[in-house]
Amino acid sequence: MVLIMLVATAIIGMVAMRSTLIETKIAGNERTYQQSFYVADSSNECTIERFDAIVSGLSLQKDIPEDISDAVNEVNPLNDASTTITYTRQGTPPVSSGTSAANTYANFYTIRSTINGETVTHGVWKAFSKAE
């Protein structure tokens, strides 16, 4: 009887250890995913913060992504994300933006940052006076 109880306890212990190992791997993968997401998001935020300076030096063509990783990574201490910006279209400013569609037009852009297979995308628009 004691031997049977000892074997049963050993089996339960091995199952518990295996379950713990799997849970640890899951937590590690989640941490890696979260880190990659926040690095990519940070890269996008740096791009938005320096948007005028970055875009003014580019000749963007519609729907063709332009690699801006170097411009972003020089101010982003994380320095690992691959960042692109794409000019998507021209149109009227978004409704409720506080910008008059009668006097302005807007250019719309997509900023995409990727690191470790995780991609974060932001949409950005910039208003211009129709007189320009």
How helical, in percent, are the residues?
A: 40-55%
Low-pLDDT runs: none
Strand content: 25-35%
Rg over alpha carbons: 25 Å
Count of all domains: 1
H/I helix tally: 3
What structural category characterises the helix and strand content? Answer: alpha+beta
Shape: elongated
Mean pLDDT: 89
Biggest β-sheet description: 4 strands, antiparallel
Give the strand order of the largest sheet, numbering strands 1, 2, ... along the chain.
1-2-3-4
| Strand runs, count | 4
Which H/E pattern describes the elements? Answer: HHEHEEE
- From the N-terminal CA to the C-terminal CA, the straight-line distance is 91 Å
In words, what does this structure look like?
A hairpin with a 2-residue loop joins strand 3 and strand 4 (118-129). The chain contains three helices and four strands. With 132 residues, the chain is α+β, with helices and mostly antiparallel strands. The protein has one domain. The chain has a four-stranded antiparallel β-sheet. It is 45% helix and 27% strand.
